[in-house]
Specification:
By secondary structure, the chain is an alpha+beta fold. Helices cover 36% and strands 24% of the residues. The structure holds zinc ion (ZN). Zinc ion binds next to helix 4.
Length: 387
């Protein structure tokens, strides 16, 4: 195994040992300090470290050269695994792969940024001028607290970003992501004895009728799914319930489709007399549009070919990431640059060992050309703005 991969794995073991479930502030803070130490050791004096406190823990950034910082390399150090997960799901190096909580999502991706940049700096200390590394503490819960720091990069001149969520088992690069909308519909009627339904207003009946109308809002041809994911209703077998709540998960390729579904939900009315309902938007994430990744993917493909590296195929990402937010802010963005693997958020999480060296090499090959591209691009105002 190459010395660089051996060193990478030693740092990965240390970073995984610093468990960092989103919202576990003591653990997250400890992990931030471990990350800062590893990063500053690898990047040396060329990198200026800042740790900006937020309600979810510190945003860790390194800046190179002087403003404007046009290109950001983006990751997160929080994970979906609670403290103590390591006792039942330990970090392990096995033939050809590494297992452990938060390895693929995405501590290996964060280290790929640091090792790729360290390789570039060895050859040319000025290679990263105008680049900022941004690693946040709360991506797994929507980057709510770190969003001002991410958006603030645009004020510093950001036009382009490379996001290091791990590549899936197909080893592609993520050129688009569907947006996500989660909605609760809360029904309010009044309880009644099961033998005297006429004395109440049955919220569960209203939920069932409302739920039956939901599938018609989906549009598979446009990539729009609308799915019932949770129903809460009822207390005993012989009470007609006065309260019920239905949760809906909607994914769309465009902001317009997301709005169409929300408008459609608002237009459904309850037919049960005496039951009213409220629609509560729980989370709303914009799509990462393919148009926002196209110039970056093109430049990355050319740079990979010049470096005699395989050109990863474009793929539609599963779920939401900081790339979704950046794209909506008008930043040109490519995702999935971390090493190949899978099993995110489960005790099957893994990273492909061979892919670590490949993605470090890819990073070293592309950051310069993408940095050049970033100078020619401008933020697209209103690229994915939701009404
Ligand atoms: Zn992630």
């Amino acid at each position: 195994m190459a010395a660089v991969v051996t060193a990478f794995l030693a740092d990965l073991r240390t970073l995984v040992a610093a468990e960092s479930k989103t919202g576990d502030l003591i653990a997250v803070d400890r992990c931030a300090r471990v990350l800062a130490t590893i990063g500053s050791r690898l990047l040396g004096p060329a990198a200026r470290l800042t740790m900006t406190p937020t309600a979810a823990g510190p945003v860790v950034q390194w800046r190179f050269g002087r403003a404007p910082w046009r290109l950001a390399l983006v990751g997160h150090y929080d994970t979906a695994h609670p403290a103590g997960t390591l006792s039942s799901f330990p970090y392990e190096e096995l033939p050809g792969l590494v297992r452990g909580p938060g390895t693929h999502d995405m501590k290996a991706g964060v280290l790929t940024i640091l090792y790729g940049c360290a390789a570039l700096l060895r050859d040319d200390p000025a290679a990263l001028d105008g680049v900022v590394i941004h690693v946040c503490p709360d991506e797994e819960e929507g980057s709510v607290a770190s969003m001002p720091a991410l958006g603030g990069l645009i004020d510093d001149g950001l036009t382009t970003a490379l996001v290091y969520e791990g590549a899936d088992e197909h080893d592609g690069l993520v050129t688009s992501r569907r947006g996500g909308l989660w909605v609760d519909v809360a029904f309010t009627g009044s309880d009644a004895h099961g033998s005297r339904p006429q004395d109440g207003a049955n919220a569960l009946q209203a939920l069932a009728e409302f739920g039956a109308a939901i599938p018609s809002l989906a549009d598979p041809a446009r990539g729009t799914t609308v799915v019932l994911t949770r129903a809460i209703a009822g207390t005993t077998i012989n009470t007609a319930p006065g309260r019920a709540t239905l949760t809906i998960d909607c994914r769309t390729e465009t902001a317009e489709e997301q709005q169409r579904v929300l408008d459609g939900l608002t237009a459904i009315y309850s037919r049960v007399p005496g039951v009213t309902h409220d629609i509560v938007v729980l989370h709303r994430f914009p799509p990462m549009a393919a148009a926002m990744s196209a110039p970056v993917y093109h430049t990355v493909s050319q740079a990979a070919r010049r470096a005699r590296l395989a050109v990863p195929a474009p793929r539609v990402g599963a779920g939401i990431s900081d790339a979704s937010h950046l794209s909506a802010l008008g930043v040109h963005v490519l995702d999935g640059l971390g090493p190949r693997g899978g099993g995110d958020h489960s005790s099957a999480e893994w990273v492909d060992l061979a892919s670590i060296a490949t993605r470090i090499a890819l990073t070293a090959a592309i950051v310069g050309p993408v940095g050049e591209l970033a100078r020619t691009l401008v933020v697209r105002q209103g690229a994915g703005v939701l009404r």
